[in-house]
Structure prediction request, 534 residues.
Amino acid sequence: MEFIWVLCAFICGLSMRIINMPPLIGFLIAGFFLNYLGVEPSASLGTLANVGITLMLFCIGLKLHVRDLLKPEVWVSALSHKVLWSLVVASCTLFLVALNLPYFSDLDFTTALVIAFALSFSSTVCVMKLFEDAGEMKTRHGQIALGVLVMQDIVAVVFLVFATGKIPTLWAILLFGLLFLKPFLANLLTRVGHGEMLPLAGLFFAFGGYELFYLVGVKGDLGALIMGILLASHSKASELNKALMNFKDIFLIGFFLSIGFTALPTLNMLGISVILSVFLIFKFCLFFLIFTRLRLRGRTAFLTALSMSNYSEFGLIVTALSVDNGWLSKEWLVILALSVSISFVVTSLLYKNAHKLYLQHKTKIKHYESTDCLDEDNLAQPKGIRILVIGLGRVGRGAFEVLHQTLNQQVAGMDADKIRIQKMTNNGDNVFFGDGEDADFWEKMDTSNIELVLLALPTIEDSSSVTLQLRKSGYTGKIAAIARYQDERNELLSSGIDNVFNFYTEAGTGFAEESLQLIGLSNAVDKKPSSVYR
Prediction:
């Protein structure tokens, strides 16, 4: 990556971060700014973008289970939205043709349908980045959005086959044999350990899957996704995902920069892009109505639809193929690149305040709920608990197990990851599924007997949001949370949290105390509370 790219990406990303906006908006701006300056993109930028997308799809696969794709709220919503959207937007495009707007005069219903189809996809890169930053990948709405995006990728593969005429070779049938290799791949992942071999193994699986599918004429990115799915049930899947996270994020910067290098727009192109961006309102409404008709709760439907209300980088691929085939003029590639960029900005800004927006319009949103929601959305809650641990990752689960040894069933754990909850339930643990940022959940839950809530969540934004929901629901007990850095302390305390625990510092203290017991000096350590993080 050339230094000028790094410099512009850093300055623009940092600028957005300072004003509390998602850095990806800055990366998009950096791409257009570099293009305006006349900087020529080299082939390495495209390589970086492709590597980022491949790693991202592999990481998505690590968090996905095939049975989730078979749920009606996933495949029915994905396919029905694509059909309805394409027909309605194509018809609206013909209306714009009748108005004789620039670049529309040469369109007919077929080419209008191609444009509508290109805009029907939602961006996997944008949506997953939003969920990762918000720590919502394993939530109900996060998993549904993930499933819909995968279904859209499957449709994309089918489209590429017909549009390019490249039919997979007969050898593609052998790809089904990967199912029989699953035990071997799992054993391979087990043997790599936890050091530098772990991220290297992730790169091997991701790019190996890509190349394998590409060699037999199938979209290589789908191979990375499938390889991730095959390893999703492995005990080290989460650790592998974390090991690849920084690699993926760095490479994806190349993707956001590359959008800006597509072409320089004119004012007319920018105006058409703004008009197409207005259709995002319809995209949200259509997703929301379909989700609620499929009996999803209003909040789940709202958050999922909001995250999916953007245009996809795949739309640029569809448009580029259409330009090569002579269906569309090359100006449409620039117009759609601008539309994709605008949609990223809009979604990033809106989803940043998604939970606040839901609270403001909760009554109207719940009006569209079905009277009989899906069984999976009926939340079961234990009774008679004194301590609740929210977030059952490594830190949260450790706290839960220690407390459970003393208080038994008076301690309960809660997590938004259903797979994790199912595994712990099978082990006899007193845990249940729940999303701490769900205002409806806390309204229905009786917290009068809970004396202490421990928040072991991935981000301080999550902890602050859950604390707000708890206090609004009438909870009057104590709340403790974890932090990694000292500058997070004031923000957590100001949100109403009673105690902030630095698990890096305190883990060292605990390690020293337990080790001293080996030589009979268990009382030698000063056990006064740390004043820095309390």
User: Anything to note?
Assistant: Residues 3-366 form a domain with the Na+/H+ antiporter like fold fold (CATH 1.20.1530.20).
